[in-house]
Amino acid sequence: MLDTVIHNGIIVTVNPAFDIIKNGWVGIKDGIIDLVGTKPADEPLPKAKQSMNARQGIIMPGLVNTHTHRAMTLFRGLADDLLLQVWLNNYIFPSEKQYITPDTVKMSTTLACAEMIRSGTTTCCDGYFFEDDVASSVHTSGLRAVLGQGVIDFPAPGVPNPSGNIKVALAFTEKWWGVSPLITPSIFCHSPYTCSFETLKKSKDVASSKGLLFQIHVAETQSEWDQIQSKHQVTPVQYLDHIGILDPDTLLVHSIWVDDGDMDIIATHGAKVSHNPSSNLKLASGAAPVVDLLKAGVTVGLGTDGCASNNNLDLFQEMDLTAKLHKVKTLDPTVMDARSILKMATINGAKAIGLGDKIGSLEIGKSADLIIIDTEKPHLIPMYNPISHIVYSMKGSDVRDVIVAGKILMRDRTLMTIDLEDILERMVKLGKEIKT
Q1: I want to staple 225 with a disulfide (CB 3.0 to 4.6 A). Which of 257, 339, 405, 418 is the partner?
Q2: How far apart are CA 108 and CA 129, in angstroms?
């Protein structure tokens, strides 16, 4: 007997053939997809403990956010319309020093989890401080996550003495390794300009010794490029290459200021890239050459970045923006087609953070991480091409049901694992304290 059967929906599988199944059904057993296909008109539903009627909605893989800082929901809208370095040094770093504590991180992360579930994200790659408290909140929410303890060569929340940054990161990975099949620990070095050669090398060595994903912001701004070029006479990507940071378990976040040589280096080493268009545009950092990265054979996933620089966690928005941004950048309406964009938000995002064999597509044997979208809305009718609609028409608020590893996290827009009213009330109160 199945645990759950979902029926009466249009399945967008994102499998290698990119099959779209009308009048489809999905069977789930022990958190794994056991059945995907077309329901014969005269065949009854298979025996299951519960059934879910998709009501002709779209059944698709849950979205994969390859880069964010969940706890920074606390700073949503706090300091907008600023240059990155001014934003970081004058507002974000001081605010973190004053307001980031284990309690505020837990609350802010819970709010982020609620926002992600309600907008169809089932997996997220996160990097921040007090990541142990991030992990605790994520674990309670039921979401899947790759979580990286932040490493930086400055006093940081939870790590007042930078000399202990790697020790703290190592302790986090050891504590959370194997605790839950949904939580994968990671190490997140902030950037090549805030982490020394020694910090970068030691952090990467620790990550490699344990088979963990290594995350790093890189080539985000022209000033970063100029700084690394001036100090080391190479580009930021070349610098990371020279010190042995790049390999298939390295996630390069942003990768805006990269040239053809950099892209060849990334592709050669099999490193992955997280593209964060809203944040990059809002901070005027630039637009990553995603079209060229894909042509070079680089796996690229989508990320929202944190709410302090986006200011939301809606990956449907990122899909729409990514498609249009690169069309206008190249003056070619045929690039970044809807199918390519959807892959970035699902299967390629999963590959970018090391989970491509488990999630990102609806296939038998993969984890049952999926969402159901309500298509009975004015802005979604008529629907000629489901993939086009997902990228260009749908919003996070169209997501009706969310399932991770077979567990229902949201049903009919009601969160099942988070007390939304409580967390909203607590975060409004906290926001008022910060504002005053």
Answers
A1: 257
A2: 12
Q: The tokens of 50 are what?
A: 């519960």
Q: Which of the listed CATH numbers 3.40.50.970, 2.30.40.10, 3.30.479.10, 3.30.870.10 matches domain 2-61+369-415?
A: 2.30.40.10
Amino acid identity, residue 281? Answer: L
Q: What span, in angstroms and rounded, lies between the C-alpha atoms of 424 and 411?
A: 19
**Tokens at residue 38, please?**
């077309």
**CATH number of the domain located at residue range(s) 63-352 in this protein:** 3.20.20.140
Please check whether residue 424 is in contact with residue 393, taking contact to mean a CB–CB distance below 8 angstroms.
no
Tens digits of per-residue pLDDT, 178-223?
Answer: 999 999 999 999 999 999 999 999 999 999 999 999 999 999 999 9
Closest CA to 277 of 200, 329, 239, 207: 329
pLDDT band at 87, cuts 50/70/90?
confident
Residue type, 436: T
pLDDT at position 275, please?
98
Q: What is the mean pLDDT of residues 51-69?
A: 98
Contact 191, 237 (CB under 8 A): no
| Cα distance between residue 224 and residue 253, in whole Å | 13
- Looking at every residue in the chain, the average pLDDT score rounds to 97
